[in-house]
Amino acid sequence: MTSCDEPIQVIARFRDGRFEPMRFLWNGRRHRVEKVTGRWATRSGHYNVFRFALVDENDTYFEISLDSKDMAWRLNRVATE
Hints:
single chain; mainly beta; SH3 type barrels; seven-stranded antiparallel beta sheet; 7 strands; about 75% strand
């Protein structure tokens, strides 16, 4: 697992009072989310950071986050082989 802190663009859906990522763009490459395997929130001062563990269409594992302070998505970790 490799840690990183890179900006990404995300398309998310809102359903049943929750949101989850559907697709994201990282380094010019699109990733379709096949499964969200975990979700949790942490605090950063007065703001929530919403975190997601997910698997894309190529079975690559990612952890991404949305910081509610600036509404910016970030790639936090990726499984590399």
